[in-house]
Structure formats: C-alpha cells, structure tokens
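Technical annex B. To support the medicinal chemistry partners, we prepared a structural model of the target in complex with CU-O-CU linkage, based solely on the information shown next.
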Amino acid sequence: SITRRYTFNVRLQNITRLCRTKQVITVNGKVPGPKIVAREGDQVLVKVVNRVSNNVTIHWHGVRQLQTGWSDGPAYITQCPIQTGQSYTYNFTIIGQRGTLFWHAHVSWLRATIYGPFVILPKIGVPYPFPKPHKEIPIVLGEWWTADTEAIISQALQTGGGPNISDSYTINGHPGALYNCSAKDTFKLGVRPGKTFLLRIINAALNAELFFSIANHSLTVVEVDAIYVKPFTTNTVLITPGQTTNVLLTVKPNPTNATFAIAARPYVTGRGASDNSTTTGILHYHNSSLSNSSISVPKFPLLLPSLPSLNDTNFATNFSRRLRSLASNQFPANVPQKVDKRFLFTVGLGTNPCPKNQTCQGPNNATKFAASINNVSFSLPTTALLQAHFFGQSAGVYRTDFPDNPPNKFNYTGMPPNNTNVSNGTRVEVLEFNTRVELVLQDTGILWVESHPLHLHGFNFFVVGQGFGNYNPSTDPANFNLVDPVERNTIGVPSGGWVALRFLADNPGVWFMHCHIEAHISWGLRMAWVVNDGKLPNQKLLPPPSHLPAC
Ligand code: C2O
C-alpha cells in the first residue's frame, strides 16, 4: 500500500450554466471536483486550503475512519471548520473497504458545489466478484441553483419556510438538453459495441432522491455504498442523496442507434416541494456503422427511457427489497446475530406554523419550522463534539440524555398528528465499545409524508427489516433478515414506514447521523453517537493532529 496525496484548493470560480454565470465555491475550480482514487490499504492525505471567506470542512462520505475521527469532517461534530486562509490535512487509511464513495463539504450548504467521486480499488491481485469491466466511469448526480445557495438556506432558516428548489439536476455537472441553453452542456458517455462498463453512480444532489436509467439498456447492480451485492438486473436504479450504486452496463454488439438517452429525475413522495424536471446525458456508440463523427443530440423526449412515475413507491419498495449483500466467503455479511442495545427513533418534519399549545423549537429559533429525531431538533455546538469528548470537556457542550425511544407514544401514521412537540438541544447517545446495536427508524409522516435518507458516519449498518405503518416490536423482528441483508451507510426511511438496522459499534469517536436531504439536516434532523474507547490499543481513538483547526 502507498500514500496518496491530494491538494484541494477551495476557491471561487465563475461558472456558466443555464445561461447564467455566477461565482461559486469550488475545489480546484471544478464542479464536480477532483476524483480521488486509492486502493484498499492505502493512506490518503488531502491538504485542504481555504481561499474563500466561508468556513469549510470536507467529509469523506462512507470512509469508515477507524480510530481517525479527526479526519471525518462534519463541522462542529468532529472538527472546527477550516477558516479563511487556513489549511488542514485530512489523514486516514482505507481499511477493509473497496468500491464507490464520494466526498463533499460538510458545513452549511457548501456541498452544493463542493463534491466529487471517491473511488477505492481492491488490493492489487484481488479481482472484482463480477466480470472485469472494459472501463469504469463515475456518474455523479447533482443539483444546480442559478442563485447563491448560501443565501437560499439562510433565508429559509430565517423565515421558517422551505428553501427554493434547484434550477436543474445535473450529470457530472451538466444539466442536459431538456434545460434552457443546455443542449451543449450535456454529459456524453462514449462506448464501444459489445463491451462491459462499470458505472459508479453517486447521488450528490442536495434534496432529491433520483431515478436513473439509460434508454433501451439494462443495468446490473453489483455494489452499493462500497459493499458488493448479489447482482440483479433492472432498467432503473433508485438512489437517494448520500447513496452510491455501481452498475454494469453491457452495451449492445449491434446497436440500432448511435445514441441513446441517459436520464435522471426525482422520486418524490407526499407533498414535498419538488421539481420533477429531468437531467439527461447521451450514451454514444463509437465504431459502430451508425455513428457519425459528431455526436448527434437525440430528439427528446422521443428517446427518453421510461422512468417510474414521480411517486412510484411500489418501485422504490421493490428496488430496495432486491438489494442483498453478496455474503460470499470472501466478502461475508457479518450481521450481528445478537443485540446488546435497542433503540427506536422517530424521524420527521414538524409543522409550520407551530400548532397552538405545542413547542416547535427549530435549530435557530424557538418558533420556526423544525425537524427532529425522537422530538429532539439537534443544534450544532460552537466547538467540536469530538474535541470536547476526547479532552473530557463535554460539560456545557453536549448532554448525554438523547432519548432511546420516542418520548411520547402516538400513532406515527396518524393524520393529523397528535404530537409534534420538538425541543432543540445538543444531545448525544453514548455507546460502549463493541456494543451490538439495533436501531429502528420510524418515519412519522407528520406533515409532509416524505422519505428520509438517513446517513450514519463511522459505520456501515445492515438493513435487517423494513415495513410500512407503525413498527411492531413484538411481531416484526420475526421477519428480519440476519443472513444476507444489504450493508450500507445511507438508507431511505420510507414515508409512513420504518427500517430496522444493526451495526457493531467498533469505531471509537463521535459519529454524526442525519438525513442526507440538506433542507432536513438544516432544520435539525440530525444527532450524534459517542462511542467510547475499548481496552486494547487498536480500540482507541488516536490523538488529534497538532494542526487541528480551532473554533
Ligand atoms: Cu454525506 Cu454527514 O454526510
């Protein structure tokens, strides 16, 4: 294994999209930013230099950061942000992981333009558990606003309303031909007939779960969140913000056309504000008798793949049920068979305005719109939780009384809800090292019945069960899959339903858990786990680097 060094210059750059030019905060002047490539076992050093007036941090989404929580990146959770003119070198080793992940800014809404692929290759000589692809291509899905995204979220938090929706979805930064002025600003994927390609699909969009498809081609899913799965074939992939999905694309030996449309558009449940526009790209065959020298733009919408409808929950449910860990001898699924601690967390959005006789304390103001976990709307502290934990200075920074269960019993699927009381606070859940955790996440469907892609830092979890309605602790566990459940770091909690997760708390540190819809995290749908050190030296959080940023 070797050391891979990168420099990320966080700087302003003028970028034109959808006919409008704006100054955006970028890494090295590009959106998406640079691709990081490392092998399992490699050490990765990324020097981040802040040349903008905003505070910055970078998160390596899905990298487990065993004992190296100081490099995880969420602002005020594991580090104070890197201030203007300062730099910080993230330093970590990739242990026991291979596959597709991504990196993004983890402060305010900066990840709108600060994101890029993170590819972990297997160790040298270790093959993929599927046919070797001819080529590997990152497909990074994003969102673009023509206005300033930092202004959008700060205004939404001040007024208590929903933030403006984006102006387009993008594929590798390009909106595609269905948007204004974007016929030329279209992602193109050139392929050779009969070959197999590995598409590393990443949903880096802020607020949209997305369907992804290629007209007249099927996709074989082989990996999610850097964990191999039992391969299955589908026309459409559903991918929530924070998830990654590797698919094999076997292209036709004798295509009928030289070009086919690639398309992505949202999956939206309930009444969430949504833009159901479609971002498109072009799959283009080289060396086929049909191809001409210039890439022709297909005539939309004729060639668009038929994507599921906007609110096709049947598709979503069936797709997630098809995902199973590969669970082979070489890549086993180490599902905790026994459980030491059980938690039931409700996740949901509150109401706006706040109902009379209830409390709706959002993160910024006591009367504004709030989102919560177990009725706690999490406020970020003014110093980093990990520092407070490591130096034994938690007093006044965080409280350790996060509720293990919903504080009030009510019917989560009821409409209207009978409990939206939310209070804010910086409260954490403490775990002893190696605790086997079972966590049920119950969507409350309080106002906007919307699914929430929950992301856990520091761990992968196994999705042992899922269902609709209220979780029933006496009957539902009988149906849990403890053999080959999918293992991942981000899971969509279905609208009006629940998921059951298991994980082993074998990584000491402080680990953020939150909805990966950026609007919801801003409203407080977030919390943190503190995992204490174990007894052995390799079970302890390493000391912080000396140049750790100060708050
Ligand atoms: Cu990709 Cu805390 O997030």
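Notes passed to the chemistry partners:
The chain has three domains: 1-127, 130-325, 341-539.
The longest helix spans residues 149-159.
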